[in-house]
Amino acid sequence: MASVPRSFLLLSIIPTILILCADFACCNTGRKTGDGLDTDFSGFSVPLEHSFEVDDVSRFRMRGALQLRGGRETSVSLSQSQLSEEDRKTLKEVAAVDGLYKIRVPRVSLTDRQTERQMDGYLTAFVRACSLVESHLSDVITLHTDVSGYLIGVSIVTIPGACRGTEVEDEVDLEAFNTTLTIIAPTNAPQPETALFIERMDIEHEKRGKPQEQKSFFAKYWYLILGGAIFLMASSSAQPSAGGAEEQQS
Amino acid sequence: MKSSVKMAKLTSLFVILLSFFCISEAVFEDQVGKFDWRQQYVGKTLFAHFESNTQSSKKMFVATDKNIFASFNSRTGDLLWRHVDKTGPEGSIDILLLHGQDALMVVGDGRLLRSWDTNIGGLNWEAVLDTGSFQAACFVAIQDTVKLVAVLKKAAISLHYLSNGHQKWVENLPDSDAVQYQAVYSGGEEEVYVLGVVPNSHLTIIAYSLEDGEIIKQRSVEASWLSSIESSCVVVGQGVLMCVDPATLALYTLPIQAEETPEFSQILLQSLDLEVFPGFQPVLVSSQPHPARSPLSEFFLQLGPDHHVLLQLNADGYTIAPLRDFQPAFLVSFATTGKKTVAAVMTPKNETACAINLFSVDSGRRLLDTTVLFPLEPNGGKPHTLYVHAFLKKDDSVGYRVLVQTQDHALTFIQQPGRVVWTREEALADVVTMEMVDLPLTGTQAELEGEFGKKADGLFPMVLKRLSSQVTLLQAWLAHLWKLFYEARKPRSQVKNEVTIETLSRDEFNLQKMMVMVTASGKLFGIDSKSGSILWKHYLENVQPNAAFKLIVQRTTAHFPHPPQCTLLIKDKDTGLATLHVFNPIFGRKSHIALPALPRPILQSLLLPVIDQDYAKVLLLVDDQYKVTAFPSTKNVLQQLQEMASSIFFYLIRSDQGNLSGFRLRKDLSTERIWEVVLPTEVQKIVAVKGKRPNEHVHSQGRVMGDRSVLYKYLNPNLLAVVTESTDTHPERAFVGVFLVDGVTGRIIHEAVQRKARGPVHFVHSENWVVYEYWNTKSRRNEFSVLELFEGTELYNSTVFSSLDRPHLPQVLQQTYIFPSPITTMEATLTEKGITSRHLLVGLPSGAILSLPKMFLDPRRPEVVTEHSREENLIPYAPEMPIRTEWFINYNQTVARVKGIYTAPSGLESTCLVVAYGLDIYQTRVYPSKQFDVLKDDYDYVLISSVLFALFFATMISKRLAQVKLLNRAWR
């Protein structure tokens, strides 16, 4: 995960970029992580199995044990043993015929430990055996969970991922896995950003300068009204005599 | 590398610029109907009535299974008006009765009673009925005038005034738990009769007083053989109930109105010398010409699939006299005009036609000169129902027109003497899937193509061939010129450009295509996209009503002389068994290719880019044992498959188990499971999965950003968008999940959850983006969300994309917007090279189709405008998506109940062909970036050429003058 190149520029432009909330623990070689550690965090362990056969018929064997810990911050670590000499030989043979290297983990729930036993079946993923060999067993295993903490998928890639046909001479390179392990929970998709938008609109309004205070009609045109009133009064005071005279005449 | 980046920058800039200038677009008034057409349909007819019984009447009324009440002009078959009700059982039409100007309709299993004015199609009144499922309805006359309508429900009967819908009275039916009331009868008397049955026990007759709904009589009659009145009984003559019992092969009669305790009297069919076809359930057909009078005493009895007998009930009420035996006869129908009632009988004539004749009901004699021929199409459905419109001619003889409904839902209207006035293909009201296929080249073009197709045989023959084909081209051109000249002299109205299957050929810009449409009834259509005329139709007879269809273009028109080839995969949803129908999409003819045997249910079908020696793409069918069948399966294909097996991957999705799994093909055409992802069904269920369209081109690899760096798109052709909905439907906890899964490796590329949301989810997956629409349960509104995937500023491997070699996950950007309308379907525009900017075509429930620029759905729209974002032409973020009326591509041509939108590229990069289908079909063209590659209609050729000529002559003259001047100067 950490090796995914991210554009800083992009981050600066789009604050809504999704950062996968990934907690990862890296683990390699056969050294076991402290046993006391996972009991403290009430974690549990599930087997990670692998299969690589020349005839492509799956025969899964133990590769290591995944220490999973559910709860608020899920974490995962892996303890695995070295490949035996026989395994190394087989792996090279499989790579030579462009076979597949498959891994599988059982379906478990990270949060609900009760139902763990009820679920059957495995989650399977594969990578080309040749790329595993050529990358000197450097693989990235990602576990995916759903919203309620069930493991839903596993994926494995090697870095580099290509098969160039380079021979791996040194047997030592194929002894121990150099595994990066990540667990990814689903990201929350964004909601429409109404609040920010309104805020921005407000700021823009302010930037444009305070609009002129809304004056009342009378406050705006008092001089016209006053002038009109005076004019009316003046004309009415002048007229009555004339009007009265006309009325009298008719 | 560098130059390609530059190109990408340039082109994307170009497209952005283009799209920026072309946001607003609309149709000008004079363009209406120029590039678009709409056809309106009603669906399968359930009830049909003709207007009054005069020769000049033009209207007919139909009620259909699509909950539509419509009126046709019977001269042309055009719709006069149409009322589209709710879909589903809520709007279903239970019955349609016609009396004078009023059309009475019971809707939604007895929910509503409606009266329509048949002249203008306006609603007179609507009455809400009491609850209870609908059983029957009939008109009730008081003193010879029809004033009331009686509606029988499961447990009640009600009478309503025809004039205003007010209820006269409603009465509960006695003992409605045990007795199934199924029929209501009124013969113009003071009572209305309700008939009920306790299956295999007895019949109940209740007479209600018309005045106040009081029960006048009630009695039960022993009838242990009777199970359903609806299917086996009719009322004939002076209120005599006539029933047929298939077990004892007898007719039973019972006078309904009889005072004393009645009993059924039995008449054995044998005594009438009648024999029932083995295994056939006999059917009775009677006619009540006027609701104020009792029904006719003549009736039809159907004894076999093509055997009908016209019988007459004698005046004594319990003896029957056979009038005429019709065998063979497919369909019969009564028709009344004035005082005369006739029977129309359809009999097979020969392979290609059926004959319809009129018979006098009283005597059973054939009326002279009444034969009408109904043409049977070779690939059409069999006749299903006959609707006869009889009228009195001036000489007092009976004339008639007839509407024939066939099994493929087509309506054919025939006039004497056997002229088909019009045909309506109502199967097109339910299009399931479609494809657009290029038309073939013209003969001369095809010859040229063929020349290159053949193998070379030496230099000299090639030159000769080349010359000869050039000569033919010249000939064709001269002929074309001559035709133009000839037609130019004629007035324009006489020049007919009618499209027939013979004159079909591709136009210059490939704008005219063949639309191959598959309908739910199993009828296939070939429609010319330019005019909308149906060029061929093919009815597949034994298609189950719940079948699923997948239409695959195996060979396009580009491989002359091999004809194009389409394959329709028909899968029975219950058994999963599939059949293939292979046909030529241009002519609709079925190909005689050997089809593979498919004994096992088919799970998945995939079209490979592998082609056989005849240029047909290979179709792989995966059965439930994960064995693969190839079609075509020639040796060549199998060999190619073996070579490629390790690079052929496919996925299967079982939504009931939440299981997504991937497989790889082995050399022996068996498969191995290589990945598995399981979404627990307790939490969420998979509702839809979409890959990308295989014919989609993406022109630019990346997007140029404000600082001139390039953001590369993550263009994974194997990417699947999986949409799920939570099983928990509580508004606070409901969610919609969007998973992007690589279809080859099963790697979950992205996993997002839209909280407080539920479906129905509509989504489009294309290029490097997914757009989906959902219902926000918290804010109670529809929202659009867009996901875009980018590789970053560097490409991992710029030459080729392989799912197996992409270790880094893409960056995912997402933004959400409020959309002010619900939607029914969504699709993206598609163009030849993908240079043109994309639009989303959104079908709204109002029938409008909105062309929404993708620019508005861009997760990089900035909240705060910066110099860079302005440079990129990004629209600042606004939470609400606008709907502008000028974006409606179908202006006022609403498409009722849009179900799907199909887009196809044309030969012009700017132009995308669009077909929206649902109840109606609408075809148009859209230009998302305007017509940047086409000169305008009003382009002034005269001006530009005169300017050119003027300039040319000016230079000539000035040159000459300059020469003269120079010469003069030299002499000086």
Automatic annotation (TrEMBL), chain A:
Compartments where located: Endoplasmic reticulum membrane
Keyword Repeat attached: no
Mode of membrane association: Single-pass type I membrane protein
A Pfam family of this chain: ECM10
Keyword list, A-Z: Endoplasmic reticulum, Membrane, Signal, Transmembrane, Transmembrane helix
Signal peptide residue numbers: 1-29
GO CC terms in record: EMC complex
Superkingdom to which the source organism belongs: Eukaryota
PANTHER family: CHROMATIN COMPLEXES SUBUNIT BAP18-RELATED, ER MEMBRANE PROTEIN COMPLEX SUBUNIT 10
Similarity field: Belongs to the EMC10 family.
Subunit structure: Component of the ER membrane protein complex (EMC).
Protein's name according to its UniProt entry: ER membrane protein complex subunit 10
The organism of origin for this protein: Oncorhynchus kisutch (Coho salmon)
Lineage: Eukaryota, Metazoa, Chordata, Craniata, Vertebrata
Gene, per the UniProt record: LOC116352742
From TrEMBL, chain B:
Encoding gene, per UniProt annotation: EMC1
GO cellular component: EMC complex
Quaternary data: Component of the ER membrane protein complex (EMC).
Signal sequence bounds: 1-26
Main location: endoplasmic reticulum
Coiled coil: none
Subcellular location per the Swiss-Prot or TrEMBL entry: Endoplasmic reticulum membrane
Protein species of origin: Oncorhynchus kisutch
GO terms for biological process, alphabetical: protein folding in endoplasmic reticulum
Topology of this chain in the membrane: Single-pass type I membrane protein
Keyword terms: Disulfide bond, Endoplasmic reticulum, Glycoprotein, Membrane, Signal, Transmembrane, Transmembrane helix
Sequence ranges assigned to domain ER membrane protein complex subunit 1 C-terminal in this UniProt record: 766-971
Name used for this protein in its record: ER membrane protein complex subunit 1
Alphabetized Pfam families for the sequence: Beta-prop_EMC1_N (PF25293), EMC1_C (PF07774)
EMC1 first beta-propeller domain mapped to chain residues: 26-426
Family: Belongs to the EMC1 family.
Gene3D superfamilies from the UniProt entry: YVTN repeat-like/Quinoprotein amine dehydrogenase
